[in-house]
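quick q for whoever's on today - can somebody do inverse folding on this one?? i tried earlier but teh output was garbage lol. tokens:
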């Protein structure tokens, strides 16, 4: 048997892509973002989509009621709504707060 050479690999990029879902104000919200793991850096942008209601509810259609993005670098929150309902302002605030919570969890303080 011969001797095998060992290959040295250097990781030059380590990213993680996340799709997370939660219920805010009775609506299903899906977040998509990616971030650098090592050294850890928060996402540049978080995109989201809102579906009215929850899976399993009788009136749940799966149609998107809102889509948008949050840019933490300048605290820019963009959204587009398809139709509006009472309570949407609270829903938007809840989505923004969740985006900020994601950033806070992924921000490393040295």
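ok took a stab at it. sequence:
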């Amino acid at each position: 048997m011969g001797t095998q050479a060992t290959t040295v690999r250097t990781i030059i990029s380590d990213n993680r892509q996340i799709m997370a879902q939660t219920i805010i104000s009775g609506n299903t919200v899906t977040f998509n973002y990616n971030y650098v793991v090592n050294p850890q850096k928060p996402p540049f942008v978080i995109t989201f989509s809102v579906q009215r209601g929850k899976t399993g509810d009788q009136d749940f259609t799966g149609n998107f009621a809102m889509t948008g993005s949050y840019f933490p670098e300048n605290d820019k929150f963009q959204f587009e709504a398809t139709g509006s309902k009472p309570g949407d302002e609270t829903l938007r605030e809840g989505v923004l707060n969740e985006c900020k919570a994601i950033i806070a969890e992924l921000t490393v303080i040295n």
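fwiw The chain has one helix and five strands. also Residues 15-106 form one domain. so keep that in mind when u check it
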